[in-house]
Amino acid sequence: MNMKWKVYLVIMAGSVSILSCVSTKKLDQEKAKYAELSGNYLNLQQKYRDLQDELKRCQNESASKISDLNTRKSALESQIADMNKQIDYLKQNNNTVLSQLKDLSVVTGSQAESIRKSLENIGAKDVYIRDLQGSIARKDSLNMALVMNLKGAVGNLDDKDINIKVEKGIVYVDISDKLLFRSGSYDVTDRAKEVLGKVAKVLNNQPDIEFMVEGHTDSIPIKSPGMIDNWDLSVKRATSVVRILQDTYGLDPKRMTAAGRSQFLPVASNSTPDGRSANRRTRIVILPQLDQFFKLLETKK
Fold first, then answer.
1. Mapping DSSP to helix (H, G, I), strand (E, B) and coil, where does residue 227 land?
2. In this structure, how many other beta carbons lie within 10 angstroms of the beta carbon of residue 53?
3. What is the homologous superfamily of the domain 157-293 according to CATH?
4. Is the pTM of this model over 0.85?
5. Per residue in 180-197, is it b (16+ CB within 10 Å) or e — as a string?
């Protein structure tokens, strides 16, 4: 082998060695990067599962409480109707009893005493029902007063931006997302903070009232960085509002519940821009204090 071939072989061997070193180093770097990405992915998946579990727990607790209170209210109203029927029946029979009492010779002393007690019971039931109906009327009046106070505090905002109403004995305050948030964000705007401050002033004047802040979205998948889906966005928007009510306006956090409803409780069709705009909203639900209401009635039985 001549010198020229020896030189070629030395150059080729060196090139192979250098390529081998470079490929191994790059492979190690890619493996490390893959391991880091895999770890981040697993962490995100766990955070997502934790968030879903917490959301489901909050929603179940809130829905269960409202459902239970509405059921008890319906049962009470049914009881009122039954008692009214009993009173009508007893009053009809009362006329017959009174006509019999005209001839006291046919009524013994014990019978007369029994009749007297029956009439007293009728009167007591009548008073109880009037008290019951009065309590329900007072509760409805308080709700209407709360709605009027909220509307007076908020001022002349467009109904498309904020809507305050009473449905089935519960007060709702719906605020559109274009007033509260920028698109795809959960950062509350400065204008929205002013509106929340007015609502907070009314709620601070009613320290016994509890309420729930619900975040709602449309059905368009979220594409903002750091957001997993519309569940994530709706929860973050609710908690943003709750934090402002607590930290900026001093509302007691024990009175508040934050919940995300994602896209699954729409008020309009998601097939049109106007419908999607209506569905993107934050709702403040004034929870009814029926526990105190029923305790008050129990003392009158």
1. coil
2. 10
3. OmpA-like domain (3.30.1330.60)
4. no
5. bbeeebbebeeebeebbe
